[in-house]
From TrEMBL, chain A:
<protein>
    <submittedName>
        <fullName>Uncharacterized protein</fullName>
    </submittedName>
</protein>
From TrEMBL, chain B:
<dbReference type="InterPro" id="IPR001806">
    <property type="entry name" value="Small_GTPase"/>
</dbReference>
<dbReference type="Pfam" id="PF00071">
    <property type="entry name" value="Ras"/>
</dbReference>
<dbReference type="GO" id="GO:0016192">
    <property type="term" value="P:vesicle-mediated transport"/>
</dbReference>
<feature type="region of interest" description="Disordered">
    <location>
        <begin position="184"/>
        <end position="215"/>
    </location>
</feature>
<keyword id="KW-0472">Membrane</keyword>
<keyword id="KW-0547">Nucleotide-binding</keyword>
<keyword id="KW-0449">Lipoprotein</keyword>
<dbReference type="InterPro" id="IPR027417">
    <property type="entry name" value="P-loop_NTPase"/>
</dbReference>
<comment type="similarity">
    <text>Belongs to the small GTPase superfamily. Rab family.</text>
</comment>
């Protein structure tokens, strides 16, 4: 089958709409006021239900993707299968592959993730411990910083000086990831759990290690968060995030004078100029002036 | 450009909020402009800003406060935002010594990119976390004196000294500006008085977003 957790979700999920989205992604009671509201309303019969999703596979696992895409576009995906569907939407799996192919790929990817994560844990033992850091663990010249306020600091943190440049660069960003993890989707009950926060931290930390060219840039936490919520298995969530980043990583590329997303904004400016010159003239002030980046916020 | 009566002001002062990630820059901004504080606030991506019009030394001043992402990698773009800034609030977290140690880096950054006459105020935020304090008031005070900065400790959560911090820096800017225009007898530069406020109008909506809304 597509994956054991996914299969479980498919079995457990009730077909058709009706269930409130809130039941799947509960918001902390004290945050109801502040949480952004979705305008999306699941409509019974229009939503891609677990039953229809299941029916879209042939016996050996080929997926009739065009059929489900139409439904997803019209009525969205039932929360019970969202993680599974996203794996296809993000391109983790080829719809023409078989169940067997995908099982093998999934296993291989999980093994790969385990190897990468072990490399990280080896350098910084707090990775994979269910805890994470929000203060610097290393100086720029590779000297470990022990935060006295953290218990068991010696077990978790870096104990010896580090000389490898790549490792230092990576370690320097770990507390930044932590600072953003504690500020990611905090209105959701899901992130009340330190384990779930640590899961997000681990994935972003491993990604920054593997893609050291981009590393970690603020904002990647928001892209990764839904994967962490939707995919129970950490490695599967990592690979979904990796797929999303393949499309988005250039936005995060920083040089001394620019950041990748600026190029995208000037493309947007060009498009608006062609499609709606009047709007462009109005926005022109923003596009041409220093406020360019204000538009991202 | 026609302006609504409620937007009339004598001066427009641009002030930037800088400092390490997670020291509370955005909450200082929301406390000052909307009297709001949000425990669940998100990290700032790139640059955001908000405005508030208030009385400073008997004049109506529109304070345009620019809030920037704290991560070093965003420096590439944020450095452009110092342009035209008359004041800078350099924030550290009184419970995190590294954020105070990095103040000197931020000062260097200001000296490299901002106007030489920019008014700088050092702010030690999060004084409500009394049991976690790790930077002594005296240390920061003497550092500020050495570097010629004004200094104040605040709590955006408890709304302690936030108003005072902004009032102080805006008054200081006003004194410098008014002194300048008196001595030179020349009209105040366009970016300071009136005019060129188009930039603000374009994104005015930013200031009206509810706390915690994803932007």
């Amino acid at each position: 089958m597509v994956g054991c957790e996914g299969f479980r979700a498919m079995l457990l999920g009730k077909s058709g709409g009706g269930e409130e989205l809130g039941a799947f992604y509960p918001i902390r009671p004290e945050c109801q006021e502040d949480a952004p509201r979705t305008r999306f309303k699941p409509r019974a019969g229009k939503t891609l239900s677990p039953r229809r999703w299941h029916a879209a596979f042939s016996e050996d696992g080929h997926l009739d993707f065009a059929k489900v895409l139409r439904r997803i576009q019209r009525g969205g995906i039932h929360p019970a299968i969202k993680g599974l569907v996203w794996e296809f939407l993000l391109g983790c799996y080829d719809p023409n592959s078989t169940f067997e192919d995908r099982n093998q790929i999934r296993q291989r990817r999980r093994d790969q993730y385990t190897i990468w994560k072990a490399e990280c844990t080896n350098l910084v033992p707090v990775i994979g411990s269910g805890k994470f850091v929000t203060t610097s663990i290393i100086t720029e010249d590779g000297q470990p910083i022990i935060d006295p306020s953290t218990s068991n600091a010696q077990e978790w943190h870096v104990n010896n000086a580090v000389s490898d440049k790549k490792a230092i660069q990576w370690m320097l960003v770990l507390h930044q990831i932590g600072l953003d993890v504690v500020r990611t989707d905090r209105t959701l009950v899901f992130y009340e759990s330190e384990t779930n926060q640590a899961k997000l931290w681990d994935i972003l930390a491993v990604y920054a290690w593997v893609d050291n060219d981009i590393g970690y840039v603020q904002g990647m936490n928001d892209i990764c968060s839904p994967m962490v919520i939707l995919l129970e298995n950490e490695a599967d969530a990592f690979w979904c995030f990796d797929r999303a980043m393949q499309r988005l990583r250039e936005n995060f590329r920083c040089s001394a004078t620019s950041i990748g997303v600026q190029a995208q904004l000037s493309t947007l400016s060009q498009v608006i100029k062609t499609v709606d010159p009047k709007l462009h003239q109005h926005l022109g002030i923003c596009f041409s002036s220093q406020t360019l980046v204000g538009l991202i916020g | 450009m026609a302006r609504r009566p409620d937007e009339e002001y004598d001066y427009l002062f641009k002030v930037v909020l800088i400092g390490d990630s997670g020291v509370g820059k955005s909450n200082l901004l929301s406390r000052f402009t909307r009297n709001e504080f949000c425990l669940e606030s998100k990290s700032t991506i790139g640059v955001e800003f908000a405005t508030r019009t208030l009385q400073v030394e008997g004049r109506t001043v529109k304070a345009q406060i620019w809030d920037t992402a704290g991560q070093e990698r965003y420096r590439a773009i944020t450095s452009a935002y110092y342009r035209g800034a008359l004041g800078a609030l350099l924030v550290y977290d009184v419970t995190k010594p590294t954020t105070f140690e990095n103040v000197s880096r931020w000062l260097k950054e200001l000296r490299d990119h901002a106007d030489a006459n920019i008014v700088i105020m050092l702010i030690g935020n999060k004084t409500d976390l009394k049991h976690l304090r790790a930077v002594a008031t005296e240390d920061a005070q003497s550092y500020a004196e050495r570097e010629g900065l004004s200094f104040i400790e605040t709590s955006a959560l408890e709304a302690t000294n936030v108003e005072k911090a902004f009032q102080t820096i805006l008054s200081e800017i006003y004194r410098i500006i008014s002194k300048k225009s008196l001595s030179s007898e020349e009209p105040t530069p366009a970016n300071i008085k009136e005019g060129k406020t188009i930039v603000v109008g374009g994104s005015e909506g930013n200031a009206k977003k509810p706390c915690c809304s994803s932007s």
